[in-house]
Write a structure and sequence with these properties.
The chain has one helix spanning about 15-20; strands spanning about 25-30, 40-45, 50-55, 60-70, 75-80, 90-95, 100-109. By secondary structure, it is mainly beta.
Length: about 110
Amino acid sequence: MKFFKRCLKELTTTVLDLQDKLEGKLQVFPNPADNGLFRAEFELRSAGEVQLVLYDGNGRCIKDLLSKYLTDGRHQIVIEELKNVPSGAYYLTLTDQQGVLGVVAIAKN
């Protein structure tokens, strides 16, 4: 059985809960994503099943971008999912078996 739900219905946490876990874990370039294309970079301390999900500014799941086993170390993923969505704020989340590893806001002009 999967340890997380695809396209989580609700993401709730506090900044203090995430502060120590997230430092340098997930970054996106360029931001804002002018043409809807951006690159996500993240580092895993240990190998395992991870999920990368894109949400709109209201917390609705736009797309489950990645759900697979990855080795430890740095990873880069090119994401085109903002090409066909309106301008605004979006959120990218990275989770593993332990919980949330990263959350980053992305602007699309």
